[in-house]
Design a protein that fits this description.
By secondary structure, the chain is α/β, with parallel strands linked by helices. It is about 40% helix and about 20% strand. A hairpin with a 4-residue loop joins β3 and β4.
Length: about 210
Amino acid sequence: MPPRDDHSHPYLIGVAGGSCSGKTTVAERLAEMAGDKRVSLFKLDSYYRSFPDQPLEVRAKADYDHPSAFDWELLAEHVDRLSMGQDVAVPVYDYTNHLRTDQVRVVAPTRIVVIEGILVLHEPSLRDRFDLKVYIDTEADIRFIRRLLRDVAERGRTPDSIIAQYLETVRPAHEQFVEPSKRFADVIIPHGGLNAPAIDVLLARVRELAIIE
């Protein structure tokens, strides 16, 4: 892939991988090393569809790892608006109540835009927009332990509910949708966000392709 010489559009990077594989860590490290003013970060989780008319017990049982759980149309619209140099209002999602809040996070156009999420390499309408596609490859047991600790500490869930969700939706969706999307990646990073040498290589690649001065 030759260096990109079109500076009128942001350089788009997709970072995919299983739940708690280290996608956010890699994306944030990339932003930190490249410079916050050059990089905007998007999380696919911000684009969960919201069904406020449904009771909480129904929302809690929904499959949030299936492609249908995400508002791909809104995300594509936001990516296109950024490419035209416009600010976008990213939804803020409440994981405890499974709803979008009334708040938004305004993101301004930057030279590089990183979009991370479990299915960003699965969805063709999004995948085709990326200049660089990255897959974070982390062992299943490590991902599950991280998810268990995170959801208890940050999302107010019980271990039993987390295990049930993992067995019923997370693992099947990973095997059906997430893992197969690895074949679309330009770069595969093993061992998640703790793989400092791989992140250094990725940053060098971004500097080469995005022409970070």
